[in-house]
Design a protein that fits this description.
Layout: H1 3-33, H2 51-74, H3 77-80, H4 86-117, H5 119-123, H6 127-150, H7 157-170, H8 185-200, E1 222-225, E2 231-235
Antiparallel strand pairs: 1-2
Amino acid sequence: MNTMHYLDQFFFQLYPYIALAVFLIGSWVRFDRDAYTWRTGSSQLLSDRWLFWGSNLFHIGVIAILLGHFVGLLTPEWAYKPFISSGTKQLLAMAVGGFFGALCLIGLSMLIIRRLTQPRVRVNTAGRDWLVLWLLLAQLLLGLFSIVVSADHLDGAVMVQLGHWAQHIVTFRWGAADFVADVHWVYKAHIALGMTLFLIFPFTRLVHIWSVPLGYLRRPWQVVRRRGATLRYAGK
């Protein structure tokens, strides 16, 4: 067995479990021991320039992308084959993924530029925040590039292989790495970097994802006054 085989076995058979274990256990430990750090660390008070559009475009894009990956990779082939072919499913994934990937890229770029150009925001950006931003950007670019690569094989075969890999991982079956051993490097890099994001998740502000603020939608307006005088700002 050559070196590449061992690398495939580590990154696509063992590494996902290491990353997911750190993701789950690390998140629980952080919430239990450092609950006061469980927050987004919003910089809106420092500067709101580009924040509205950047944040909304990024979050809309990333939520759609994550849902698409979840459904696309974990839906067994037998479940969708009676209704749609693998090739058509791939074309649909490329179109939807490309659209929301573009939205996400625009939003993320705005957030990065904002942190680079706004002095107060830049000074209050920790090293781990930069790490997350650059890794997210790299992951997004890899995902968009994979769409370009996918245009060279529209029969859906590679998408089926990636689906088998994901389904083997979540069902704790050995042999998952064999499904991605011969795919294009961009898919491998996309998977490995995705697992790395899970790995660092508990140590960054990404933990706020666990706290989906559904109650925020029903939250009443807060009235903010300066020294009890004239109403200055009202918002959630």
